[in-house]
Amino acid sequence: MAAVTFTIGEAAARAGVSRDTLRYYERKGILPRTLRTQAGYRTYTDAAVEQIRFVRHALRFGFSVNEIAAFLGARRAGHPPCRQVRARGGEILADIDRRLADLATARAEVAATLERWDRALAATAAGQPAGLLQMIAWPEAAANACAPSACAPLSRRSRGDVPG
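RE: above sequence
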């Protein structure tokens, strides 16, 4: 019995990608060249759809398209890339850890800024500027935790907008 085949549109829909993505994966060597109908249309099998799903999971894991293509090419050539895959997975994890640390630092800075803003707003009369944006641009001014001189907006002259 012949394998069931799908048009590019059907295969793309089953795998949850676009037609252009299928063509791109084929160009990159992630998918083998597909069979063509007599009219020249690409046809895909269930195995190709599963390969595309695998690629989507590998991308979500953190591998790049080029890395996936290299790993699959090595495997097809009889050189299992297991150690390279594991090493790269460790690098991906380390990168995630770095990004999480950066996000934690950024979160702490935003939380501290919001606290300074709350103090500035509490010390500022309604309708008057509290200088919140300057606290972002000039953190040393914010370190004064909204002493009147630190929270007051800069005049155009003191900012250098107007010649002295």
